[in-house]
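Sequence only, no structure available. Ideas?
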Amino acid sequence: MYGGDVIEKVTVFGKLAAKLAHSLDFDVIHAHDWMTMIAGMEIKAQTGKPLVVHIHSLEIDRGGAHSKGWVYQIEKKGMETADVLMPVSDFTGNIIREHYHIPGHKIHTVHNGIRPVTPFKSEKLAERKNGFVCWSFNTTKRT
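Reply:
I predicted one. C-alpha coordinates follow.
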Protein backbone atom coordinates (compact mmCIF):
# COMPACT_ATOMS: atom_id res chain seq x y z
CA MET A 1 0.00 0.00 0.00
CA TYR A 2 2.86 2.40 0.80
CA GLY A 3 5.20 1.08 -1.88
CA GLY A 4 7.18 3.44 -4.03
CA ASP A 5 8.02 6.98 -3.02
CA VAL A 6 5.98 7.81 0.10
CA ILE A 7 7.14 11.44 0.07
CA GLU A 8 5.85 11.85 -3.48
CA LYS A 9 2.52 10.27 -2.49
CA VAL A 10 2.19 12.63 0.48
CA THR A 11 2.92 15.60 -1.80
CA VAL A 12 0.35 14.46 -4.39
CA PHE A 13 -2.19 13.88 -1.61
CA GLY A 14 -1.62 17.45 -0.42
CA LYS A 15 -2.31 18.87 -3.87
CA LEU A 16 -5.41 16.71 -4.40
CA ALA A 17 -6.79 17.57 -0.96
CA ALA A 18 -6.26 21.29 -1.64
CA LYS A 19 -8.08 20.97 -4.97
CA LEU A 20 -10.97 19.12 -3.31
CA ALA A 21 -11.19 21.78 -0.58
CA HIS A 22 -12.38 24.31 -3.20
CA SER A 23 -15.69 22.44 -3.44
CA LEU A 24 -16.30 22.04 0.30
CA ASP A 25 -17.73 24.30 2.99
CA PHE A 26 -15.81 24.09 6.28
CA ASP A 27 -14.59 26.30 9.12
CA VAL A 28 -11.42 24.58 10.34
CA ILE A 29 -8.66 22.53 8.72
CA HIS A 30 -7.64 19.50 10.77
CA ALA A 31 -4.47 17.55 9.99
CA HIS A 32 -2.74 14.58 11.66
CA ASP A 33 1.02 14.34 11.74
CA TRP A 34 3.42 14.95 8.84
CA MET A 35 1.56 12.93 6.21
CA THR A 36 -1.34 15.40 6.14
CA MET A 37 0.50 18.61 7.04
CA ILE A 38 1.26 19.49 3.41
CA ALA A 39 -2.46 19.23 2.61
CA GLY A 40 -3.32 21.34 5.65
CA MET A 41 -0.78 24.03 4.73
CA GLU A 42 -2.00 24.13 1.11
CA ILE A 43 -5.63 24.45 2.16
CA LYS A 44 -4.80 27.16 4.72
CA ALA A 45 -2.88 29.11 2.06
CA GLN A 46 -5.92 28.93 -0.27
CA THR A 47 -8.64 29.66 2.26
CA GLY A 48 -7.05 31.51 5.16
CA LYS A 49 -8.97 29.24 7.52
CA PRO A 50 -7.36 28.10 10.78
CA LEU A 51 -5.19 24.99 10.74
CA VAL A 52 -5.28 22.62 13.71
CA VAL A 53 -2.69 19.83 13.75
CA HIS A 54 -3.10 16.79 15.99
CA ILE A 55 0.36 15.39 16.80
CA HIS A 56 0.65 11.69 17.67
CA SER A 57 4.35 11.17 17.05
CA LEU A 58 7.29 13.08 15.64
CA GLU A 59 10.41 12.38 13.61
CA ILE A 60 12.42 13.08 16.77
CA ASP A 61 10.55 10.16 18.42
CA ARG A 62 11.37 7.83 15.53
CA GLY A 63 14.89 8.90 14.63
CA GLY A 64 16.32 10.69 17.65
CA ALA A 65 17.28 14.29 18.37
CA HIS A 66 19.61 14.55 15.36
CA SER A 67 17.00 13.40 12.84
CA LYS A 68 16.48 16.60 10.85
CA GLY A 69 15.64 15.27 7.38
CA TRP A 70 12.67 15.85 5.10
CA VAL A 71 10.01 14.61 7.52
CA TYR A 72 11.38 16.81 10.32
CA GLN A 73 11.37 19.82 7.98
CA ILE A 74 7.73 19.17 6.97
CA GLU A 75 6.75 18.78 10.63
CA LYS A 76 8.50 22.02 11.55
CA LYS A 77 6.97 23.99 8.68
CA GLY A 78 3.54 22.48 9.37
CA MET A 79 3.70 23.35 13.06
CA GLU A 80 4.91 26.88 12.30
CA THR A 81 1.99 27.33 9.87
CA ALA A 82 -0.62 25.81 12.20
CA ASP A 83 -2.75 28.01 14.41
CA VAL A 84 -3.14 25.32 17.08
CA LEU A 85 -1.14 22.18 17.85
CA MET A 86 -2.73 19.35 19.81
CA PRO A 87 -0.09 16.85 20.95
CA VAL A 88 -1.40 13.70 22.62
CA SER A 89 0.84 14.18 25.66
CA ASP A 90 2.78 16.82 27.57
CA PHE A 91 5.90 14.81 26.67
CA THR A 92 5.22 15.37 22.95
CA GLY A 93 4.37 19.03 23.63
CA ASN A 94 7.78 19.48 25.27
CA ILE A 95 9.49 17.92 22.23
CA ILE A 96 7.62 20.38 20.00
CA ARG A 97 8.90 23.31 22.09
CA GLU A 98 12.46 22.06 22.58
CA HIS A 99 13.31 20.45 19.24
CA TYR A 100 11.07 22.36 16.82
CA HIS A 101 11.18 25.74 18.62
CA ILE A 102 7.43 26.28 18.42
CA PRO A 103 6.02 28.81 20.91
CA GLY A 104 4.11 27.30 23.84
CA HIS A 105 0.96 29.40 23.26
CA LYS A 106 0.18 27.28 20.16
CA ILE A 107 0.44 23.97 22.04
CA HIS A 108 -2.63 22.50 23.76
CA THR A 109 -2.29 18.90 24.94
CA VAL A 110 -5.29 16.69 24.21
CA HIS A 111 -4.73 13.25 25.70
CA ASN A 112 -5.91 10.12 23.92
CA GLY A 113 -8.61 8.16 25.74
CA ILE A 114 -10.20 11.04 27.61
CA ARG A 115 -13.36 9.16 28.57
CA PRO A 116 -13.22 7.27 31.87
CA VAL A 117 -13.42 3.50 31.54
CA THR A 118 -14.92 1.25 34.17
CA PRO A 119 -12.40 -1.52 34.83
CA PHE A 120 -13.60 -5.10 34.53
CA LYS A 121 -12.23 -8.59 34.96
CA SER A 122 -12.38 -11.06 32.08
CA GLU A 123 -12.16 -14.81 32.46
CA LYS A 124 -11.57 -16.97 29.41
CA LEU A 125 -13.48 -20.22 29.48
CA ALA A 126 -12.44 -22.92 27.00
CA GLU A 127 -14.48 -25.91 25.97
CA ARG A 128 -13.81 -28.61 23.35
CA LYS A 129 -16.45 -29.18 20.69
CA ASN A 130 -15.82 -31.67 17.89
CA GLY A 131 -12.07 -31.50 18.50
CA PHE A 132 -11.93 -27.68 18.42
CA VAL A 133 -11.31 -25.35 21.34
CA CYS A 134 -14.13 -22.82 21.67
CA TRP A 135 -13.64 -19.76 23.82
CA SER A 136 -16.28 -17.78 25.64
CA PHE A 137 -15.68 -14.70 27.70
CA ASN A 138 -17.28 -14.00 31.04
CA THR A 139 -16.88 -10.37 32.05
CA THR A 140 -17.76 -9.13 35.47
CA LYS A 141 -17.50 -5.55 36.65
CA ARG A 142 -15.25 -4.85 39.58
CA THR A 143 -16.69 -3.16 42.63
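The two ends are 46 Å apart (CA to CA).
Hope that gets you unstuck.
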